[in-house]
Amino acid sequence: MAISDGLNLERNPIHVAGGLAEARLIEAIASWCECLQGRLPLVTALKQLAEGLGARAVCLSRHVREPGGGARAVTFNVPALTRPGLEVTRSYAHCVLGRYVDRPRPASVWFSSLTEGHDDPALAVFQERARIAETVVVALALEEKWADYIEIHFAVAPAGGSQGLFNTLADTLSRTWIRRSPGLFSDAILASQAQARPWPREPLLSTANPARLSRAEFRVCVLLSRGLNSAAVCSELAISPSTLKAHLRSVFAKTGTTSMVELLYLLLAPWTTERQVAGAVTARRA
Questions:
Q1: Residue numbers of the domain that contains 71
Q2: First to last CA, the chain
Q3: Which end of the chain is more exposed for a tag (fewer CB within 10 A), N or C?
Q4: Same-domain status, 173 and 218
């Protein structure tokens, strides 16, 4: 069946009362709980949620609670139902919640179709291009520095009586997310970046010095790889915090990383015999 045919015939299990839809949701929630304990990759839970809800895509996002803080996201798109180039690759929660995106009530449910006056039309544009009928956003948690969300994109809008189901689902997802294993979201972000990013052919701290780090930058990276924090690095090298920040900005630019967490992942990630970054995250969790 062609992708276009699959999209035309797409059906949402939420529309159909019955044991099959209920069983899929139970399986999805069970998978979600296993993933939050670190037993399965987080993207597996997103896949199960998408299949259990009959969604086109599911996105787990984290929004920084400060002006211009931005958002990071882990996404799953159902391959058979997604046109190439129209995958969900980012968060649209801010388009639905507007000014409330940095202060949502945990377990609250937001529908894009019920939101008026979008400040950012990006979601509406994407929905039209990708033929998304409804986007449901569930607020998972509100913490000091960020807010976490699950965003569910449907090609067929959920039936009018599905509000109760979403409220129950949101409560379960939120309560279990709060008790997740530490570092789970950061690990998922790093794992997705590791798959998409063309990592250097040699370890950063090898004699080949693939990122062409300066001597000072190389020393900083060596100390970071040994577990020293920023203050200890400054003390060891007898440099000021501002000098360290300047070195790190240069290192980030040369290595294609954007944060200390990403840099540590690149420094500490295991290498296979083909000298490619492999497997699990070994960087220290925040």
A1: 3-189
A2: 46
A3: N
A4: no
